[in-house]
Fold this sequence. Notes:
Elements: H1 2-6, H2 12-25, E1 38-40, E2 43-45, H3 54-60, H4 79-82, H5 85-99, E3 112-124, E4 130-136, E5 154-162, E6 171-178, E7 182-183, E8 188-189, E9 191-200
Parallel strand pairs: 2-3, 5-9
Antiparallel strand pairs: 1-2, 3-4, 3-6, 4-5, 6-9, 7-8
Helix pairs in contact: 3-5
Amino acid sequence: MFYASIYRAAPVRLVLALLLLFAAAGIAPAALAADEGRVAGAYQELEWIDLLPQEDLDALMNPPQYIDEIVDGSEEDVLASQLSAAENELAGGRWEEALVSTRVVESLDGAAIRLPGFIVPLEFGEDERVTKFFLVPYFGACLHMPPPPPNQIVYAEFADGLELASIYNPFWLEGKLATTLTENEVARSAYYMAVDRLEPFE
Length: 202
């Protein structure tokens, strides 16, 4: 599956979380053009894969061969410990680059979209409601697990604020997307969303 191959070098819990979320969302391992997305009301319903430029998608769908040889839970189950200079040059260079890519799908700039994901709180307003956060494709990203590529993170602002009962719960977000780079001590994102509405993911 797409995300399992991207994060094959990460701990097995992360891969399982990805599989659960994207299986539930029905995400297929293929990119969709911006004008072919599903439409939910006035918002174009996207999958996380839609935020990847084709060149990054191609690289992430074709990881170096050694990634498939890693045993879950082993010492080699950490990216930094199993890359060699030769492997990086021959097979992993482009794949590694895609893992930290800030490239975006320019046609999505200004698009009204609907996207599911997990919330990583960054700032709180009145009554401890979350007003600024990262939206990420799998639970634990930027908290317990390494962050996904910047073009798989959306920095979001919600003026009304969200009373977040649990970070374990995914949400649907609706709003206007922008190809804007945001960076802080938590992570770096290549997209920004001014949130109009959000609801629990079901």
